[in-house]
Task: inverse folding
């Protein structure tokens, strides 16, 4: 080997060593590393809400499960398989088999013990401290300082949560969430590193929900999973159409887009050109959030509304079609929310995920709030442009069937002609929006973040009414602070005008996950880009 070749090898070795050093520096300075460093610090602390988890982790034992969720008959520990019925996507199943599944999940008598993971637990919650172990320390004063009034209010709110579950899934649930944890079908590798899970919710008509599962490291399971709900996202798919030319009898073809079921090559109905050019945009991730969430080390699940996007059913043009079914005794909100609950079951019971976070845009933000309000296993949740209290809504804020909480004769943003005036969802009469925000943030180590845009092109714009948002935010914070175990809630308004998960929204989410502020900490009122609570202009 000549002298010049030795010099070349030496240069290559130096370059590789420098690259390795830079990569190591980048790793330790990324938000995801700071996030897990903060989590490690919290595990070493002496907060009461994390003691049980620390002991379980040290002893390598199973973490306690939520008393709201029944054990699955197809738990892998009992020999079940995570691929229950490996049919193609949307495969038909006999209706009676779905009914049998629902009946088999029926709760027992009130106070009856239900077997969960091999241990008997009461189906009636006794202690709020057993609800969840989350990302944050206890959110309020000790029970001795809160007093009997706070304890009584907590029990009342837990009763409201049970009633909300019944209003969504049916009175026979008796406050217990659906328990299935094994998808009805799995289609592997619909995209590189992405599987499609299919949940069949059919009763007297066929309806399924497809959820995309994108682990951060294919073949392994991360400690934390993030459920992101896309909301009202249709897919616009390329089709070839004939166009007559003036000077020719030929009919050449040109490209056109039309609404269709999501598939490779389609784009979202709300996408921007900037989103399309951004690496990571995909037909299954229409808000392009997976790369962002993977940067924190999270596994990602992408959900969609019924009848929209990948769940589109030809002939069903509007969620308003569920109004008649509700009048006939059905519980249509289950078609919106059951896939989220079942996906949490799948992550926790089947995969062994330890922590659940959730977020969503528009109707997906609404679904995120409802999920977190009903399911205390969701530690932290982010509602992006998904709802505001009903009494603050202007005409443009009245959206779709699932979110209606008062009498309306027409959906302003939907051409669907209602068969009769919509009286609003029964779930709202059990728990209005402020109640939902409270339940979504309730519990040791839990928080709920509402992200809104100052000049949103769709709805829920905050411009000109900051005081109204600060009023209900303050009321909910004070309510949580007066409860044993507490929790946290905050509203953030960013200076953005498009209905999307903006870069500013992602900055806020990143900051929250990196800081993990204590409840009532001044850091909640100094988040970047926030126009609502920040007293001085923060970097954005």
Result:
């Amino acid at each position: 080997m000549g002298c010049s070749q030795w010099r070349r090898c030496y240069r290559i070795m130096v370059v590789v060593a420098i690259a390795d050093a830079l990569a190591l520096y980048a790793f330790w300075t990324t938000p995801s590393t700071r996030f897990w460093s903060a989590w490690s610090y919290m595990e070493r602390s002496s907060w009461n809400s994390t003691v049980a988890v620390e002991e379980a982790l040290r002893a390598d034992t199973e973490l306690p499960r939520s008393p709201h969720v029944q054990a699955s008959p197809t738990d892998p520990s009992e020999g079940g398989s995570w691929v229950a019925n490996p049919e193609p996507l949307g495969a038909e199943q006999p209706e009676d088999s779905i009914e049998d599944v629902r009946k088999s999940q029926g709760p027992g008598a009130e106070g009856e013990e239900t077997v969960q993971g091999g241990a008997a637990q009461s189906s009636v919650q006794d202690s709020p401290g057993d609800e969840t172990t989350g990302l944050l320390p206890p959110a309020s004063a000790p029970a001795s300082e809160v007093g009997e009034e706070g304890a009584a209010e907590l029990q009342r709110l837990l009763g409201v949560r049970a009633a909300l579950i019944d209003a969504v899934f049916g009175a026979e649930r008796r406050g217990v969430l659906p328990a299935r944890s094994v998808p009805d079908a799995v289609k592997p590798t619909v995209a590189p590193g992405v599987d499609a899970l299919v949940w069949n919710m059919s009763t007297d008509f066929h309806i399924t929900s497809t959820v995309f599962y994108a682990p951060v490291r294919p073949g392994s399971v991360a400690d934390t999973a993030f459920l992101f709900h896309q909301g009202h996202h249709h897919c616009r798919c390329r089709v070839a159409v004939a166009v007559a030319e003036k000077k020719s009898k030929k009919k050449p073809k040109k490209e056109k887009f039309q609404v269709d079921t999501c598939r490779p090559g389609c784009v979202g109905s709300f996408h921007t050109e900037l989103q399309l050019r951004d690496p990571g945009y995909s037909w299954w991730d229409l808000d392009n959030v997976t790369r962002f969430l993977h940067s924190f080390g999270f596994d990602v699940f992408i959900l969609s509304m019924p009848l929209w996007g990948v769940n589109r059913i030809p002939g069903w043009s509007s969620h308003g079609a569920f109004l008649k079914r509700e009048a006939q005794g059905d519980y249509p909100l289950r078609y919106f929310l059951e896939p989220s609950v079942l996906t949490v079951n799948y992550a926790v019971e089947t995969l062994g995920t330890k922590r659940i976070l959730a977020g969503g845009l528009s109707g997906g933000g609404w679904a995120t709030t409802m999920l977190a309000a009903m399911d205390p296993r969701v530690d932290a949740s982010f509602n992006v442009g998904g709802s505001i209290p009903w009494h603050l809504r202007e005409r443009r804020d009245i959206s779709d069937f699932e979110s209606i909480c008062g009498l309306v004769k027409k959906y302003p943003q939907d051409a669907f002609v209602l068969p009769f005036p919509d009286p609003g969802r029964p779930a709202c009469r059990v728990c209005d929006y402020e109640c939902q925000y409270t339940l979504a943030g309730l519990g040791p180590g839990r928080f709920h973040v509402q992200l809104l845009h100052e000049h949103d092109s769709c709805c829920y714009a905050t411009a000109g009414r900051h005081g109204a948002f600060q009023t209900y935010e303050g009321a909910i914070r004070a309510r949580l602070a007066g409860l044993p175990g507490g929790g946290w809630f905050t509203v953030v308004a960013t200076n953005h005008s498009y209905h999307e998960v903006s870069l500013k929204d992602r900055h806020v989410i990143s900051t929250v996950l990196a800081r993990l502020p204590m409840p009532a900490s001044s850091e909640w009122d100094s988040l970047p880009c926030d126009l609502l609570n920040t007293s001085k202009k923060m970097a954005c």
User: Anything to note?
Assistant: Confidence is low (pLDDT under 50) at residues 23-140. Residues 223 and 353 are 5 Å apart (CA to CA).
